[in-house]
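Dear Dr. L.,

I hope this message finds you well. Following up on our conversation about the binding site, I have prepared a predicted three-dimensional model of the protein together with zinc ion. For your records, I am including the exact sequence and ligand specification that went into the calculation, followed by the structure tokens. Please feel free to forward this to your student if that is useful.
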Amino acid sequence: MMSADPNCIFCKIVAGQIPSRKAYEDEEILVFHDINPWAPVHLLVIPKIHIISMAHVKPDHHALLGRMMGLMQQLAAEHGCNPYPDGGFRIVSNTGKEGGQEVHHLHFHLMGGPRPWARG
Ligand code: 5GP
Ligand code: ZN
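The resulting structure of the complex is given below.
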């Protein structure tokens, strides 16, 4: 598995070659605001390494994915999602063509905020 794909838009965002509105960063994970938000809060949570999709996750990645899931509640709270149960948030990971994936670098959409939303 390549750690970065030179043709991948999200690898370019990780490398700082394409600007993004960052919401969180650590050694392994980057979170930034979706350029075309569906909801009042719409973040993209990505691994810095180039994993293509949820269909490409290996056992070596499980701890990283666990950390990504563990961050969700903190990201939601810090970026404007209202508290559970009246607020809450939605996590989506489109996978493959039939799954609606457009960017082939694993990402979780983290969406929330007052309804109605543009989509979803
Ligand atoms: P997918 O359809 O692959 O699940 O979602 C890809 C998401 O990436 C879309 O919601 C799209 O708006 C977002 N996106 C695509 N290119 C860029 C970009 O250059 N910057 C940011 N911030 N978001 C992007
Ligand atoms: Zn990539």
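In brief: The helical segments are 9-14, 62-78.

With kind regards,
A. P.
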